[in-house]
Design goal:
Order of helices and strands of chain A: EEEHEEHEHHHEHEHEEHEHEEHEHH
Strand content of chain B: under 5%
Helix content of chain A: 25-40%
Structural class of chain A: alpha/beta
Number of strands of chain A: 14
Distance between the termini of chain B: 29 Å
Shape of chain B: globular
Helix content of chain B: over 70%
Oligomer: heterodimer
Largest interface: A-B, 33 and 27 residues
Largest sheet of chain B: none
Strand content of chain A: 25-35%
Number of helices of chain A: 12
C-alpha cells in the first residue's frame, strides 16, 4: 500500500534521505527506527506530501504523491511530529474541522468524530481548548485526527511520545487493533514499542536503511541472542566460571560481581543453545542458583551496533 | 468551493476564539475615529461627507492590515500546524484562498462596524450616499490588496515580526508608488513607460478614484488582479518551501 522508490531528499549540500526504497503492505506495522537526524521524519514528510522529494517516488494506495497528491493524502492518516493542532480550538471543534476538510458533512462528520473520540478516550476534554490540555491528551487529539477518516494508511511520528505508561498501553492496543486492515508506519525511539506492536522493524541511519526485518530477526543479530545469565553466590565464582567456559555451546563469558553474588553471562557459539547445557550443569553440580535465564536478544544493543555512523558508511561504500 | 469553505470557516472562527479580534476591532474603530475627528477635524469642515474619514484609510491600513496578515502563515509554520494543514487532502490554492478570504472577511467586519459614522453624517446633513458606498467598496478592495501582499510575505517566514515589518514597507511602496519619493528613484534611468507603469500601481490613485464615487472598471480590475497576483505568489512560495524545507 505504501511504495517508496529511490526516495532522496537533499537540503542544500546535506542529504537527509538517500535513495530509500521500501514497501509496506496491508497488515504490516512498520517500526521506523533510527537515531535523531537519521531521516525518519523527513521520509514521513515526503510520503505525506508535506515535503517534495529531490528524487524518487512515493505511491500510496497506487496514487503517486507528486502527481496525484490529493488522492494519496485522502488515503493517509498522519500524525506529525509533536502532534500539532490549533491550540485555540477545542478538541471537538478541531476534530469537526478535520472531518469537514476530509469531506464529511452533517451527521456523518459527527459520527466520525464520536468514533475517533471514543477510540482515543477524549470524551472528558472535548470542550477544552487544545492548548490547555496535557501533553498526553494533545497527543491523543492528534491521533484522533489521524484515524478520523479510517484511512487505509496510517503514518505516525512518535505516537506515544509524552504519554504515561497506561496511555502508551492504550495507544499500542489501539494501533494493534487497527493493524489488520491498514498499512501502518510508526517512528519511535522506544525499542520496547517495536517489540510490542511492530511486525517489522526498519532501522535507518544517515538517510539509509541499515536493517530491515521482523523484531525477532533483529534480535537474532544481538550478541545476547540465546545468551544465558546465571546468578550464583560469589564464593562459587571461580569454579563455576571455569565449568561454564568449558561447555561446547559457550563461546565467551562475562562476569560481574556485586556484593556476595556473582552474575555470569555465557554467550553462545553460532546456532547453539547453552541454556540446556548450563541448566543441566547447575543440577549436576548442585549449584545454589539464584537466577537463571536465557535472552532473546537486546534491541538497544543491535540498534547501537548498526547505527554508529561507521556501520552506515561501510554500507554506503559497499552499495 | 467545497475545499475552501471548511478552511475559511476555521480561520474566521479563529479570530474570535482569541482576544485578537476584539482588540483589533476596538483599536481599528478607535484609530478611525481619532483620526477622523481630531486629525481630520471632521466637525470643523462642516461638510456632510466622509472624505476625511476615508482619506485616512490607506494610512491606517498600512499598519492594521499587516497586523492581521503577519500571522496567516508565519504562525502555522512556527506552531507546526502547517504540516497538518498541508497534508490534508485540500488543493494548495484552496487553502491559500480560504485563509485569505477569512482574513478579508474579518477586516470587512471591522470596516462595517464603522457604520455609526455613516449614520452621523446622514443625521447632520445630506451626504451623497452613493459616494459613501463606493468609498466603502474602494476601502475594502484596498484592504484586500494590502492583505494579499501581507499573506504572501507571511508565507516566506516563520517570524511574525519580520512578516509585519516587511509587509509595512512593501505596502507603503505600493501605496505611494505614484509619489515623487518612489518615482524619483526610477526617473533617472528608467524609460517613461516603466515610470508610468510604476505610478499606475499606486493604491492611493486607484482608491481616490473610487472614493470620488466613480467605480471604474479599471480600478476594480487593478485591485482584483493585484490580489490574484499576490495570492498566486503565495501559492508559489508555499509550494517552493516544500522543496527547500
Amino acid at each position: 500500500m505504501i511504495e517508496i522508490e529511490g526516495l532522496t531528499k537533499r537540503f542544500g549540500p546535506y542529504t537527509a534521505v538517500s535513495n530509500l526504497t521500501l514497501t509496506v503492505n496491508k497488515g504490516e506495522v512498520l517500526g521506523f527506527l533510527g537515531p535523531n537526524g537519521a531521516g525518519k521524519s523527513t521520509t514521513m514528510k515526503m510520503v505525506t506530501g508535506y515535503l517534495a522529494a529531490t528524487a524518487g517516488r512515493v505511491r500510496v494506495c497506487g496514487h503517486d504523491v507528486e502527481t496525484d497528491e490529493l488522492a494519496a493524502q485522502a488515503a493517509i492518516g498522519y500524525l506529525p511530529e509533536g502532534a500539532p493542532a490549533y491550540g485555540d480550538m477545542t478538541a471537538r471543534l478541531f476534530l469537526e474541522f478535520i472531518a469537514r476538510v476530509r469531506g464529511f458533512g452533517g451527521a456523518d462528520a459527527k459520527a466520525r468524530v464520536a468514533a475517533a473520540v471514543e477510540k482515543t478516550e477524549l470524551e472528558g476534554v472535548l470542550d477544552q481548548p487544545i492548548e490547555t490540555l496535557s501533553k498526553g491528551f494533545k497527543r491523543r487529539v492528534g491521533l484522533a485526527q489521524a484515524i478520523l477518516h479510517d484511512p487505509p494508511v496510517l503514518i505516525m511520528d512518535e505516537p506515544t511520545d509524552g504519554l504515561d505508561p497506561n496511555q502508551k498501553f492504550a495507544v499500542r492496543n489501539l494501533i494493534r487493533g487497527m493493524a489488520k486492515e491498514k498499512a501502518i508506519i510508526i517512528s519511535t525511539h522506544l525499542l520496547e514499542e517495536v517489540d510490542a506492536i511492530c511486525t517489522r522493524a526498519v532501522i535507518i541511519d544517515c538517510g539509509q536503511i541499515v536493517a530491515d526485518g521482523t523484531p525477532a530477526e533483529l534480535l537474532a543479530r544481538s550478541r545476547y541472542h540465546n545468551a544465558v545469565t546465571i546468578v550464583l553466590p560469589a564464593t562459587m565464582q571461580a569454579g563455576a566460571l571455569m565449568k561454564i567456559k568449558n561447555l561446547a555451546s559457550v563461546a565467551t563469558t562475562d562476569i560481574a560481581i556485586a556484593g556476595d553474588i556473582v552474575t555470569i553471562t555465557a554467550f553462545p557459539r553460532k546456532n547453539a543453545l547453552p541454556i540446556e547445557d548450563i541448566s543441566a550443569l547447575a543440577v549436576r553440580e548442585q549449584w545454589d542458583v539464584k537466577e537463571l535465564h536465557a535472552e532473546a536478544g537486546r534491541l538497544d544493543e543491535v540498534f547501537r551496533a548498526i547505527t554508529t555512523h561507521d556501520a552506515a558508511r561501510t554500507k554506503a561504500s559497499a552499495a | 468551493m467545497k475545499h475552501i469553505w471548511p478552511i475559511f470557516r476555521r480561520e474566521f472562527a479563529a479570530y474570535f476564539a482569541t482576544p485578537l479580534a476584539y482588540v483589533f476591532i476596538v483599536i481599528f474603530l478607535f484609530a478611525m475615529g481619532a483620526f477622523t475627528f481630531y486629525v481630520g477635524h471632521f466637525y470643523d469642515n462642516s461638510i456632510a461627507d466622509l472624505s476625511v474619514f476615508f482619506g485616512f484609510h490607506p494610512w491606517l491600513y498600512l499598519f492594521l492590515v499587516p497586523a492581521i496578515s503577519m500571522r496567516l502563515w508565519a504562525e502555522e509554520r512556527r506552531t507546526g500546524t502547517m504540516e497538518l494543514l498541508l497534508t490534508l487532502p485540500v488543493p494548495l490554492w484552496a487553502t491559500v484562498t480560504g485563509k485569505y478570504l477569512a482574513a478579508w472577511a474579518f477586516i470587512a467586519v471591522a470596516l462595517a462596524l464603522t457604520f455609526p459614522i455613516w449614520i452621523t453624517v446622514n443625521y447632520l446633513g445630506n451626504p451623497d450616499n452613493g459616494v459613501i458606498v463606493a468609498s466603502y467598496v474602494g476601502s475594502l478592495l484596498m484592504a484586500g490588496a494590502y492583505l494579499a501582499i501581507g499573506a504572501c510575505i507571511s508565507a516566506t517566514t516563520n517570524n511574525q515580526v519580520i512578516a509585519f515589518v516587511v509587509t509595512v514597507v512593501v505596502c507603503f511602496l505600493f501605496c505611494v508608488s505614484g509619489a515623487p519619493l518612489v518615482l524619483d528613484f526610477f526617473r533617472a534611468w528608467a524609460p517613461l513607460a516603466l515610470i508610468n507603469a510604476i505610478s499606475s500601481f499606486s493604491f492611493l490613485t486607484h482608491f481616490q478614484a473610487i472614493s470620488q464615487g466613480v467605480i471604474d472598471l479599471r480600478d476594480l480590475i487593478f485591485f482584483f488582479s493585484l490580489i490574484a497576483l499576490f495570492l498566486t505568489a503565495n501559492v508559489v512560495v508555499v509550494d517552493l518551501k516544500k522543496s527547500v524545507g
